[in-house]
Each structure stands twice: as C-alpha cells, then as structure tokens.
Amino acid sequence: MNDNVTLRVNGREWNGWTSVRIGAGIERLARDFSVEITRQWPGDEGITTLQPRIKNGSKVEVLIGDELVITGWVEATPVRYDARSVSTGIAGRSLTADLIDCAAEPTQFNGRSLVQIAQALAAPFGIEVVNNGAPSGVIPDVQPDHGETVIEVINKILGQQQALAYDDPHGRLVIGGIGSTRAHTALVLGENILSCDTEKSIRERFSVYQVAGQRAGNDDDFGEATTTALRARTEDAFIARYRPMYIRQTGQATGAGCIARADFEARQRAARTDETTYVVQGWRQGNGTLWQPNQRVIVFDPVCGFDNTELLVSEVTFTQDQNGT
C-alpha cells in the first residue's frame, strides 16, 4: 500500500522526503507535521536549488498515500547544514492552530451550547466546527477574559461538559465524546508491538477532588442570598495519603455539573497512570486504515499488566527516516 507522504500546495505536489513526522491527538487542537530532505553538500552552482520553493504562510494539504491527514499552514522552512551535508525542510500545523495562538473575541455567551459557542469563537478564523456527539446542554454564562485565547475559553467549558476538542484532516474543529470509534487491530506483545514506554505515574492523582462554583440566586433564594454556593466531592481510593485538589467551576455552576466535573477529573487522572506509548511497525491497521486518535483499542501486554484491556488512543505519530516507518 502506498504510504508516500505528499505536500500539496497551490495545486502542485511535493514528495521524496528523507524524514517525516506527522502528529495528531485528542489533547491538542492542531495536528502538526515536519518533512525534510538531506543531501550531500553541493557545489556552488547547486546551492540555489536548495532554497525552499514552498513559502511560509502557504496553505498546505498533507497526504499519506491518497489519504488526507492534515489541512493547514506552512509555518517554517528550516535550513541546516554542516561540512558534509545540507538539509531543507517544511513544517506546519492544522488550520486550527490559530485557535491556539490567537485571542478570542470578547463576546458574552448566554444560554448557548458548547458547539454553538465554539462555532462563534471559530467563525472569525474561517474554521468550521463539527459536532461529533458533543453534549447538547445549555451553558448559562461564558465570557472570554481579556487576551484569553480561543482554546483557553473552550478548555474552560470542556471541563464542565466532559467533552473533547480536537481537529480533523480537513482542518476543522471537532467537538465530541471520548472513544468515538474502535480500532480494527489490537496491540499485542510479540506481534505488532515493537517497543513500549510507560511511567505508571501517580504524580498527578489526588486523594480527593473538590469542585466549587456559584450560580445567581433565584426566587427561591429570595431573602437568603443573592448567590448560591455549590460544592461536590469525589475520592480516589487508590491514593492513601492526604492529597486534596480544589477546582473552581467557572460561569454559572449547577450541582449536577459540579458532581460530573469532580467525577470526570478523578477518572481522567486515574486513567493517566496507564498512559503508555507503543511503537508499532507501519502506519496502518490490519484492514489497511491508518491508526487514528480517539479510537478504543484492545491491548494485550502482560509486562504492563494489560490483559485484553480496552484503552484509548490519545495520540498518533507517524515517523519515517532511514530506519523505516
């Protein structure tokens, strides 16, 4: 199967790279890529041919074989050389990179859903938002702070809604749930797993998670208070010593929202203890499809304690160099 990496810019296609790295994940908002060609040092007459003909700021499509994997912008054209060789490269990120770097419009949102708020925040950048099973509940009140980036605003809401925000191959912003699809191929020690790296860390886990928020008072609160304080608490039984974490629920909080946030924070941090990086041979699964983030995958790895355990693919990195893919 064709796994050549092609950059398509202004109707022209470029390939033949000596090294490639493409990354995508559910804990980032923008895929990224870098490609490079390394040659032996040329004579003086060959130096001008090494200047990159793809310009910074160009819109680019990155393909693996015939499959689109990134739509974005060229952000760097590095040149490196020493006495023996010279290399030129192209690097960039998804269209959604601007949502990471740039400030959000200072607009107040009342009574709108997560997807509706994301659409309004992304609209000035010309970025489409895809609803992939996002929560439909109404969020009472959201307003970006001065200078706050789009992703910072979205992340505050994601904490309340227990949803994910990531990009797709078309450079669109996707709002959805966890584990939207299932991988065709399992990860099995002794078969397709080449190497493993895991910390099995509990550094970011806490014994108790307490979420506190406020909502405006209503008619039932008349004569008592103009605001009502809300609190929720979840414990992690695995952490024996006292390690509290306090979380402030932004915006107009609800009791159910505080409970869900505390439970989500505990589950998410506990899951990170099993966070593992596997290197596998090739970029495709048994059915020919590329590995994708946000897929549920079965893992059999008795060394790490996984006995046909279902895990979530949070990050995928495609690499190619002189050692292969």
Structural notes for this entry:
This protein has 325 residues and is mainly β. The chain folds into four domains: 5-94, Roll (Phage tail proteins - horseshoe like beta roll fold), CATH 2.30.300; 99-176, Baseplate protein-like domains (Phage tail protein beta-alpha-beta fold, 3-Layer(bab) Sandwich); 181-199 and 275-320, Baseplate protein-like domain - beta roll fold (Phage tail proteins - horseshoe like beta roll fold, Roll), CATH 2.30.300; 208-272, Phage tail proteins - 2 layer sandwich fold, CATH 3.30.1920. 13% of the residues lie in helices and 42% in strands. The protein contains four helices and 23 strands. It has helices at residues 97-101, 114-122, 150-161, 255-271; strands at residues 5-9, 12-14, 19-25, 32-40, 59-64, 67-76, 79-81, 85-94, 109-113, 129-132, 138-142, 164-167, 173-176, 181-182, 187-188, 193-198, 208-216, 227-235, 244-252, 276-280, 295-301, 306-312, 315-320. Strands 1, 2, 3, 4, 5, 6, 7, 8 and 23 form a nine-stranded antiparallel beta sheet that branches. Strands 14, 15, 21 and 22 form a four-stranded mixed beta sheet that branches. Strands 10-13-12 form a three-stranded mixed beta sheet, with helices on one face. A hairpin with a 2-residue loop joins strand 1 and strand 2 (12-14). Helix 2 runs antiparallel to helix 3 (150-161). The longest helix is centred in the C-terminal third of the chain and has 17 residues, at 255-271. It is globular, with a radius of gyration of 23 Å. Residues 221-226 have low confidence and may be disordered. Residues 5-94 form the Baseplate hub protein gp44-like N-terminal domain. This is Baseplate protein.
